[in-house]
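Help: read this over?
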Amino acid sequence: MRKLLWAMAALLAILLVAGGAAGWYVRSAAPVTAGRATAHGLRKPVEVWRDSMGVPHIWARSEEDAVYAQGYVHAQDRLWQMEMFRRVAQGRLAEVIGPEGVDTDRFLRTLGMWRATAEAERRLDPAERRLLEAYAAGVNAYLQDRRGALPPEFLALRVTPEPWTVRSSLAIEKVMAWDLASYNVGVALFHDLRRLGVERGRILMPDYPAFNPTILEGPAPPAVPAVAAALLDAASTVHASNSWVISGRLTRSGKPILANDMHLGLRAPSIWQLQALHGGALDVAGMTLPGVPYVVAGHNRAVAWGYTNAMLDDADLFLEKLDPADSTRYLVPGGSEPFRVLVDTIRVKGRERPELLRIRWTRHGPILTDVEARADTQLLALRWAAHDPSPSYRAIRGLNLARQWSDFLAAVAEFRDPHQNVIYADTAGHIGYAMAGRVPLRGSADPARAKRPPLLPVPGWTGEWDWRGDLPFAQHPQALDPPEGYIVTANNRQAAGTVADLVTGEWDEGFRAYRIREMIRGDGAPPQGPVVGAGLPEPPAAPARRLDAAAILAMQLDTHDAMAARYLDRAVAAAERAGLGDEARLLRAWDADAAADSRAAALFYAWYERLRHLEAVSLYGGSGGDFGRSAANRLLEARALPWERREARAAFEELAARAMREAAPVTRGKTWGELNRVMIEHPLGQVAALQRLFGFSIGPAPRAGSPTTVNVSHYGGWRFPATTTAGPSERHVVDMGDVDGAGGFVLPTGESGIPFEAHYRDMFDMWQKGGLWR
């Protein structure tokens, strides 16, 4: 027994020592941020110092050395994030996660982001290539010189990073450009219209397409595989965003103030890293994207800029027909053409043999239905702007170096994708706006005769929907120093008329834009007049206030809901009809503020989402289906269910009362923050043991706001409690009267991508409570 006890004690000691050694080794992945490092390839010494939040400030003597050091620092802090960006572009997930990644790789390889990047690389001029090579050299210098463990994701999945290349950086642009939500909206709409038919389908899309509805009898567009959807969504710019800029005549400093918060999926680590770059002509600070050189959004000493999604429709599905005489060809106007066939191999972790993939390519783009092995006499091809070469790298560099409005416009003109509304401010006192991105002209090269973007697949063999060119940049929506003294973009319609119709037909509703304008003008009245279709009216004029950076930040944090204010009387009426007097009184007294401690907000949103679900069940005949908030708001506007022709008003009122009866018990005694919690997830955080060991995911925590508040909270589904999974991926405010001292930046997580690092999560509380770092 004594020997057994000694043996067990010795074994325990060995395990403790081994565990300690393993823990020490894993933690050696933390970057070394003090002392000196020798990195081959630099022309002159570079200094990198980090402030108390871990934000890197890079000081170099040339632009080339600055981006070299930026690549080194990105690799120090965000190597796994960069690895995943590249693997998504390449379609190489199965090598890491095994057979469950095969469908994702098939879809991504068919989409062809990595192939499209090859042409973009070929078109680089020598100076551009030299700068991108300097960035890649910085990344590779860290890979070569680093000591200790790789970040824990590499260890957990047994992956070794490959050298970084120019093409690796350019490919991230394609990942960012993939308008996943627009594609998914089209796929969902196609399926829904097949279920509903033409008449009921008008409820989902009032402007039903004029082209032949028999197209709906063709093959359904393939859904994006779940893994691909999550990975693309993590790098997508598709979610709603806010940006605005205010003239100096409305500010305390007498100079413009710019504000921006881009709404993306909330992931750990954050998609962005804050950096300051100084070297050569570079003197810039703001949000950088690991894997790509320069600052994406921020300011230099003269100019500030920010973005929102333009909602531009730059991807069409074309229905193709096989040549009846030859299945290797497909029909085109006046005859047929052969498919271009690409054969690819997908390596799969745990398997000796690779998967073979055969991709058919048409004049419009790849055949997507081959991904689901659903080839038929009719096939679906994707025409996507990002398949074409884009000089967007040149645009980002141009924004970093801009000193005036003409420089800004020249840079934005190069911004082909991803499409964005770009706002502008400068120290000379000017404010401006320009829409970036390629606007395809369908059916005609004449903008006055071109067709509106289709939401559904269109015939590819007729040529009537072919892209004939692009809208000239000079005709893009633009503004410089408007008389109102401010410019607001919140994914709403850019302008009226033909040009706006060529952009898309699917803008976000204007509730956030209305509320921002309302706050700038200093008037708190709820919106009046029509909301759906024509958009929101201008807020009433009010005496101009003198605003500062703190006031602008307070606007970014605003949770007053213009949508809730508009439809609150419908909720009160539903409670009264349901015989719920306490709930009716609670809602009647509510100020439409989606505060985390509000019980009325909890009741309103639970009722709203339950009503939207019940409306979908009614529309689809009992089984439910997709039914967006825009469609739900149209019914709230009309207070009627149009498919119930005889009792449309009564049917709506009964459904609204039923929704209230079902929502009340769920929310009674609960605050909105108890029902809506934010969780910033890391994919490996779903593995309980890894989450306990490393704390990959951050949260949950109570969350204020809604999908229609300025401080946005995108929660999913209609059941509560709910989880917010998308929101402000950053906030920044810049007062051009004091670019370094007023305003600042914040991320939802932190600077580091290493889970046990202090700077992995140290901005979370600041992001939640409304602080900025400067």
Notes: The longest strand covers residues 315-323. The mean pLDDT is 87. The radius of gyration is 27 Å.
